[in-house]
Amino acid sequence: MTASRLIIEQFTVRLADMKNIPEKSNYHHGDLRTTLLKVASEMIKENGINELSLRKLAARVGVSRTAPYHHFKDKNALLCGIAENGFQQLNQINKLGFEQTNLSKHGHFTRFIHDYIQFASNNPELYELMFGRTIWKNESSTKELRDSAYPCFQFQVKMTEEWQKQGLLNINDNALRASQVLWGMVHGIAKLFIDGIYTDNSKVEEICDYAVSMLLASQESL
How many CB atoms lie under 10 A from the CB of residue 220? Predict the structure, then answer.
């Protein structure tokens, strides 16, 4: 089982008791926020971001129209909360893979490529929200979202620096720029699947393997 699938299953188990939400329920504040984020994520999967509203969310959860505003001041704050959860999941996936002790240096690099693209492929709407223009192009990210998103990329830079030390990537390259290029590559592959340009999802693993082989081969030829 890949790290991305493990994290998603763990997340699903923690929220399993929220699947059947009654029309009218009383929640403790912490429980309501978690429920709102979960149900809002489901609504985005069903009908997209444009159809989501705090009013519709309240009706779906079965609380008063004003209840969601105790946790999210507006729709943008709600979207940022969903994306924040996504970055926390992705960062945890990266750390689990990087810290797995029974993998070789090649194995760690391969796992990063596979886990990243698999995460995006398994969660297309969430991934689009995390990296799309809805939040970032409009410069409407919250501090809480930035506090989750930036460490995710910073850890990728850390991994890149380690792979440079191990000889997998060019030690003379700027680690930040190398991380950005590596991120651009996996992001591009992920988008091709999410946007339906690559239509055969059964080929995700094969394409990931080719990406690893091409990246490492390019370094060995230097």
Answer: 8
Alpha helices in the chain (DSSP H): 3-14, 29-47, 54-61, 75-98, 105-122, 124-131, 143-165, 175-194, 204-220
CATH code at 47? 1.10.357.10
Biggest alpha carbon distance in the chain? Answer: 64
**Total of domains in the chain:** 1
Nearest to 83 by CA among 51, 125, 39: 125
Query: Would the pTM count as exceeding 0.85?
Result: no
Q: Which of 170, 184, 185, 177 is nearest to 220 (CA)?
A: 170
Structural domain span for residue 118: 3-220
Give pLDDT tens digits for 100-118. Answer: 999 999 999 999 999 999 9
Is there a contact between 80 and 141 (Cβ–Cβ < 8 Å)?
yes
Residues in Cβ contact with 14 at an 8 Å cutoff, skipping those fewer than 6 apart: none
